[in-house]
From TrEMBL:
Summary of the function given for this chain in its UniProt record: tRNA methylase which 2'-O-methylates cytidine(4) in tRNA(Pro) and tRNA(Gly)(GCC), and adenosine(4) in tRNA(His).
GO-annotated biological processes: tRNA methylation
Superkingdom, taxonomy of origin: Eukaryota
Name of the protein in question: tRNA:m(4)X modification enzyme TRM13
């Protein structure tokens, strides 16, 4: 510390952390420029005054370790391969496509205005002929969550999540998907917020929470785990075999649920359910809340047969994924520009919007139609497996635009 209470910059690491847009704050040894984590291997090799050299970790090149401690480091490194698990098989739910072209993705900005305008014409035609009036509004609620939401201490952000959970539970009741001896599989469970409330509504059920990360402050930790009715597994949905998970094997029925499962993860979850060996008798149904369509990918998309049937191509799919953001991302201009637009009562359009010939409201409608068509392809996939399916707006737009 210096005399004025400020940290001495020379005592801190000189590595600039791009992700955080600041220098590393770790202290360094006297005479060193970098902390042990960020010391460049080449410099470390050149400076052997203490006999310790840092090298790039062979498991993950994003970090380094001491060469003399390599054996020990490989045993504890976070990037080390996990133990083989019976319910994990690489890519089992990915769609079985290895073609690199199928997995590629093109941004909307890479397509010409004429190509975009052509796809918009297709979208409007398909929506008006096949989907108009079939995407309905069904706002359900559940008393368990509504009672919690009535507490005065909750702010708007908390109430937003509670309203979504209440609506999902209400739809489960509406479609008779709350029964004894069901295992509810929450895909992309995060902190387990939805499963926590579902456990209050379905007391005799069991719960499997699937999440590929390991978040802190998990809500399922507040549930009673002594009777083995709550199981959390860390897995990528693309690699998950539900039949081989203990919680599934001892349950009579399965119901899949999601609250916020981004893009192609929804398609992976649908395939995961469809790959259950007794799918026609064991999988009662699912409530899937779709979101983040800009992150969908053709390789894993479940509605490819539907797209081919209505003469939509992979390029059309990529453009539609890009256009879905028109429904949720506002104008794309700064607050100052938006404020100026409101004051002058004139709509600001960029050059590309002018070429396409759509105003803001028209773009939002196209974005919503893109989302509906992408979701309709998923619905067709489920109906081919024998399910009866419905597509609803499940909360108001002021709760979530991903509704």
């Amino acid at each position: 510390m210096t005399g004025n209470g400020q940290d001495d910059a020379s005592s801190h690491c000189n590595h600039f952390v791009m992700r955080k847009k600041r220098y590393c704050r770790m202290t360094v040894k006297p005479g060193d420029k970098f902390c042990g984590e960020h010391q460049p291997p080449s410099e470390a090799a050149a400076d052997k005054t203490d006999g310790k050299v840092r090298i790039v970790c062979p498991l993950d090149p994003k970090h380094t370790c001491y060469a003399h401690n390599l054996k020990k480091h490989l045993k504890i490194c976070n990037a080390r391969p996990g133990e083989a698990l019976p319910y994990i098989e690489k890519g089992v739910n990915s769609g079985g496509k290895d073609d690199a072209d199928l997995d590629s993705y093109k941004l909307l900005s890479t397509f010409s205005t004429n190509e975009i305008m052509g796809v918009i014409q297709k979208i409007n035609k398909i929506f008006e002929e096949l989907l108009d009036g079939k995407v309905t509004r069904k706002l359900a609620t559940h008393g368990v969550v509504e009672a919690e939401m009535a507490k005065p201490e909750y702010g708007d952000k908390t109430k937003k999540h509670l309203k979504q959970a209440s609506a999902i539970l209400g739809l489960l009741v509406e479609y008779d998907l709350i029964k004894p001896n069901i295992c509810y599989v929450e895909f992309g469970a995060g902190r387990g917020h939805l499963s926590y409330w579902l456990a209050q509504a379905a007391e005799e059920a069991s719960f499997l929470l699937v999440e590929r990360s390991s978040p802190k402050h998990k809500r399922d930790n507040k549930l009673d785990k002594t009777d083995d009715k709550v199981q959390r597994i860390r897995a990528d949905i693309a690699d998950l075999i539900l039949d081989k998970v203990e919680a599934i094997s001892r349950s009579d029925f399965i119901v899949g649920v999601t609250k916020h499962l981004c893009g192609d993860a929804t398609d992976l979850a649908l395939r995961c359910l469809s790959n259950v060996s007794q799918q026609q008798t064991k999988v009662l149904g699912c409530i899937m809340t779709f979101c983040c369509h800009h992150r969908c990918r053709w390789a894993s998309y479940t509605g490819k047969d539907f797209f081919e049937g209505v003469d939509l191509t992979k390029n059309d799919f990529d453009m539609m994924c890009g256009m879905t953001s028109w429904a949720t991302c506002g104008t794309g201009f700064s607050r100052e520009k938006n404020s100026e637009s409101l004051q002058t009562k004139t709509e600001i359009l960029n050059e590309r919007d002018k070429e396409i010939g759509l105003n803001r409201d028209q773009k939002e409608e196209v974005g919503r139609r893109c989302k509906s068509i992408l979701n309709w392809g998923r619905l067709q996939y489920l109906e081919k497996m024998g399910f009866q399916c419905f597509l609803h707006y499940y909360v108001d737009a002021d709760v979530s635009l991903e509704n």
